[in-house]
Design goal:
This protein has 10 helices and 21 strands. The chain is of the alpha/beta class. The chain has a domain of about 180 residues: 2-Layer Sandwich (D-Amino Acid Oxidase, Chain A, domain 2). Strands 4, 6, 7, 8, 15, 16, 17, 18 and 19 form a 9-stranded mixed sheet that branches. Strands 10-2-1-14-21-20 form a 6-stranded mixed sheet. Strands 3-9-5 form a 3-stranded antiparallel sheet. The structure holds flavin-adenine dinucleotide. The site of flavin-adenine dinucleotide has 43 residues, from α1, β15, β19 and α10. This is D-amino-acid dehydrogenase. Keywords: Membrane, Transmembrane, Transmembrane helix. One of its GO terms (cellular component) is cytoplasm.
Length: about 425
């Protein structure tokens, strides 16, 4: 047993030291809890938090499961370089996930989710700003450009912008003439797009490092081990067991293992439908041109983020279970899309760059799983953030602290119930 880790009400074990686990540990430690983060890989390279695009996106108020996604996805399936792929396989978990995704990809679900996603998105942005100020990491508050190269893309994004305005977000629809204002030092090839002014960007690694330091400063500890199961007293979970046989006891356990939460939840009798949404990133250490704003390239579904002196280009969503193999064709697709929008760059600039791969923990309705388990009151699940885990990490951690302390949540979390699919 870990010494001094008595299972008193004040101690909490957080499984997973990715952005969601760290943000949870941070708010718990700050509130005076005795926190232990159990993370199997301190480099975070096997998780999803290290190489992501670093975007903080209140603009993402439309869940992944939305109208049009399925028909667009079917078209993309035929193109090996496309940004979306679902690897067909005989797998009950995949079949269940796809069936639930189909059931949620409709206008009703989008309408039911948009206010919640806006509220948690804006609250998380506020917390990111507060954290950056308090913990001293750099946060760029210049907004995000959604860049479009086709009239169809522009029309679709103008509709999204109208909805964003209806929801009270600060956006501007712009034409080609504005591109030089946004990026005076680089060429941008686009017809125009939408500027989501409240979005921000940062370096995920700086964010992770700042949280780790703050957790330690607030008395938290880290254990580099793999959690393989739970420890019980009677029927009640009282901690976790690691691969080396260590027992880490805690009054509460927060399950924040990203995609791996699936297997751990199963051990508690909970079948959370979740698929890995595989994505890649490539980081140019010395980009030819310095970009000012982060951008999403509509037609290529590629994310571009300046991070200090470097430039990160990320993309693809391959629904793939837990497979982390690389697809050279899809990596090429990301590079070609980026170079079409930013013609100062060429595919040769990416030669020799080691790609990063990560599995987004994707729920079938595009909403995170956040809440206490009804059959295990001491276990709190915080995962399933899909493409918004970095963005929503602070609000998730802040809400986890409320769930641990038993305080009423300031935000209605019913739609995020971990057991909502039974
Ligand atoms: C290409 C790409 C770009 C992205 N860009 C953005 C973006 O711009 N903005 C945004 O908000 N999101 C983005 N995302 C999504 C974001 O990266 C994820 O949603 C987020 O990282 C999920 O965080 P997490 O902490 O839940 O999971 P993870 O980052 O996967 O962390 C889980 C951690 O738990 C550990 N773990 C798992 N099981 C165990 C165990 N049994 N014992 C001990 N430790 C365990 C793992 O090692 C891992 O470190 C992107 C993702 C990809 C792939």
């Amino acid at each position: 047993m870990i010494p001094n880790m008595a299972k008193d009400a004040n101690s909490v074990v957080v499984v997973g030291g990715g952005v969601v686990g760290l943000a949870s540990a941070y708010y718990l430690a700050k509130a005076g809890r005795q926190v232990t983060v159990v993370e199997r890989d301190s480099t975070l390279l096997s998780g999803c938090s290290e190489g992501n695009a670093g975007m903080i996106v209140p603009s993402h108020f439309i869940p992944l499961a939305a109208p049009g996604v399925i028909s667009q996805g079917m078209k993309w399936m035929l193109d090996p370089k496309s940004p979306f792929f679902l690897r067909p396989r005989l797998d009950f978990d995949l079949a269940r996930w796809v069936w639930l995704f189909f059931r949620h990809a409709n206008a009703g679900h989008v309408q039911r989710s948009e206010h919640l996603l806006r509220d948690i998105g804006l609250e998380s942005r506020r917390l990111h700003v507060e954290l950056a100020r308090e913990r001293g990491f750099h946060l760029e508050e210049r907004g995000l450009l959604m860049l479009c190269q086709s009239e169809k893309g522009l029309d679709e994004e103008a509709e999204v912008a109208k909805d964003a305005i209806r929801l009270g977000l600060d956006v501007e629809i712009f034409g080609k003439d504005r591109l030089k204002d946004f990026e005076p030092g680089a060429s941008v090839e686009a017809l125009g797009g939408v500027w989501f002014k409240q979005d921000c960007h940062l370096s995920p690694l700086d964010f992770v490092e700042a949280l780790r330091k703050a957790i330690v400063a607030n008395g938290g500890t880290f254990l580099e081990e793999e959690v393989v199961g739970f420890a019980y007293e009677g029927e009640q979970v009282i901690g976790v067991k690691t691969a080396t046989g260590t027992l880490v006891e805690g009054g509460k356990v927060v399950l924040a293992g990203g995609m791996a939460s699936l297997e751990l939840a199963r051990k508690l009798g909970l079948k959370i439908p979740m698929q890995g949404g595989k994505g890649y990133s490539l980081t140019l250490k010395e980009p030819k041109k310095a970009l000012q704003l982060c951008s999403l390239l509509k037609e290529g579904r590629v994310a571009v983020t300046p991070m200090g002196k470097t430039l990160r280009v990320a993309g693809t969503m391959e629904i793939c279970g837990s497979d982390t193999s690389l697809s050279p064709a899809r990596l090429q697709g990301i590079i070609e899309s980026f170079c079409r929008f930013y013609p100062d760059f060429s595919p040769a600039d990416f030669e020799g760059i080691e790609p990063w791969v990560g599995l987004r923990p994707c729920s079938p309705d595009g909403l995170p799983y956040l809440g206490r388990l009804s059959n295990q009151e001491r276990v709190i699940v915080a995962t399933g953030h899909s493409m918004m885990g970095l963005s929503l990490a602070p609000v998730t951690g802040w809400l986890v602290e409320k769930l641990v302390s038993g305080e009423a949540s300031p935000i209605d979390l019913t739609a995020l119930e971990p057991t909502r699919f039974g």
